[in-house]
Amino acid sequence: MDEALELANKLGRAIARSDRFKDLREAEATAMGNEEAVQKLKERDEILKDLHKKEQAGEPIEVSEKHALAEVDEWVRSSMELAQLFKAQADFQELMNLVNEQIGASLTPKEAPGAPEAEADVEADAAESESPPAE
Fold first, then answer.
1. Is 93 helix (H, G, I), strand (E, B) or coil?
2. Whole-angstrom distance, CA of residue 94 vs CA of residue 16
3. Handedness of CA 36, 87, 106, 4 (dihedral sign)
């Protein structure tokens, strides 16, 4: 297997072991176990889709539609299960953003490609990934 794919596999397993991922899965299970919460989320999505269609078509949005959305939004905001889910989603997204930043930073060598320092960094990284972790 390609080295990059092997490292991606390891990264995926490390993410799956992270507290943020575990918290997300737990919050998802809790929220999805609440039938009323699931129903309110579906209702909210339908209202938002309808409003979006009307906006795209240039049609006016009725006051009653705005009230319906506000009512559902209020319920969603007051749900402890959904609040925990939204927090867990935000925390996990923050982790993924940090991971992506680290990957992006490692793709930008300190020196131009082909420069001795850049080549040494690449060789050191390769040797590091081959050696067993220090205990």
1. helix
2. 15
3. negative
Which CATH code for domain 3-102? Answer: 1.20.1500.10
In the 8-state DSSP scheme, what is residue 114?
A: T
Residue corresponding to tokens 């943020």: 20
For residue 27, count other CB atoms closer than 10 A to its CB. Answer: 21
Q: Identify each DSSP E strand in the chain by its residue range.
A: none
Across 92-106, b (16+ Cβ under 10 Å) vs e yields beeeeeeeeeeeeee
Q: How many residues appear in the chain?
A: 135
pTM: 0.70
- pLDDT tens digits, 8-60: 999 999 999 999 999 999 999 999 999 999 999 999 999 999 999 999 999 99
For the segment 54-97, what is each residue's pLDDT rounded down to a tens digit?
999 999 999 999 999 999 999 999 999 999 999 999 999 999 99
Query: Tokens for 114?
Result: 């082909």
The DSSP output letter for 108 is S
- The DSSP 8-state label assigned to residue 131 in this structure reads S
Phi, psi (deg, nearest 5) at residue 34:
-95, 100
